[in-house]
């Protein structure tokens, strides 16, 4: 009888784990390698994803990895957004802080590599997708230095905001 109880508990645990593992995660994240660790203004990585739920706000993050030889305390970039049915992409410029004189690099680091996950904040602090469907975001560096040296990866993360 004791063995049967153990089998039932084990089966119940496996079923519960299966339910949690199969739960849909409302998240998109993709990171792209920058060729030769030099981000040219002409290299505009594109991120494509599908949004189904337009009733909740989302949080957008830029992911940047660079080495400690990166020359600047910030990064200027354009974010191009194209939604379902849009003929043209909307463009918004962002300045992303990467370091301060007091604290040094703001991202997390290991050896000489630093990673930043920087939240993009729209004017009203809430980002809603207007229509369900396929979206396309592109990133363009607009720094004075071209190519921008010592940039390893650039990426985009989109997740539903939790209340």
Q: How are the SSEs ordered, and which strands pair?
A:
Blueprint lengths: L1 H20 L5 E7 L4 E2 L6 E6 L6 E10 L6 E9 L7 E8 L1 E2 L3 E2 L2 E3 L2 E8 L12 E9 L6 E2 L1 E10 L3
Antiparallel strand pairs: 1-13, 2-12, 3-11, 4-10, 4-13, 5-6, 5-11, 7-8, 9-10
Description:
The chain has one helix at 2-21; strands spanning 27-33, 38-39, 46-51, 58-67, 74-82, 90-97, 99-100, 104-105, 108-110, 113-120, 133-141, 148-149, 151-160. It is mainly β. The protein has a single domain (25-160), classed as Jelly Rolls. The strands form 4 sheets. A 5-stranded antiparallel beta sheet has the order 1-13-4-10-9, with no helix packed on it. Mean pLDDT is 85; it is low at 11-25.
What profile does the largest beta sheet have? 5 strands, antiparallel
Instruction: Tally the beta strands.
Output: 13
Q: Nearest-angstrom radius of gyration?
A: 21 Å
**Can you write the helix and strand succession as a string?**
HEEEEEEEEEEEEE
Briefly summarize what is shown.
With 163 residues, the chain is mainly beta. The protein has one helix at 2-21, and strands at 27-33, 38-39, 46-51, 58-67, 74-82, 90-97, 99-100, 104-105, 108-110, 113-120, 133-141, 148-149, 151-160. It has a single domain (25-160), classed as Sandwich (Jelly Rolls), CATH 2.60.120.
């Amino acid at each position: 009888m004791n063995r049967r109880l153990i089998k039932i508990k084990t089966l119940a645990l496996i079923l519960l784990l299966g339910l949690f593992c199969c739960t849909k995660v409302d998240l998109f994240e993709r990171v792209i390698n920058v060729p030769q660790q030099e981000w040219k203004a002409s290299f505009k990585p594109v991120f494509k994803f599908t949004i189904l739920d337009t009733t909740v706000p989302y949080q957008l993050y830029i992911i940047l990895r660079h080495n400690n030889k990166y020359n600047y305390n910030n990064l200027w970039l354009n974010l191009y957004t194209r939604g379902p049915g849009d003929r043209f992409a909307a463009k918004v410029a962002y300045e992303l802080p990467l370091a301060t004189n007091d604290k040094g690099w703001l991202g997390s680091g290991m050896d000489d590599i630093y990673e930043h996950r920087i939240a993009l904040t729209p004017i009203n602090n809430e980002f809603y997708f207007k229509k369900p469907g396929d979206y396309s975001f592109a990133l363009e560096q607009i720094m004075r230095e071209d190519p921008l040296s010592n940039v390893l990866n650039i990426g985009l993360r989109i997740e539903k905001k939790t209340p």
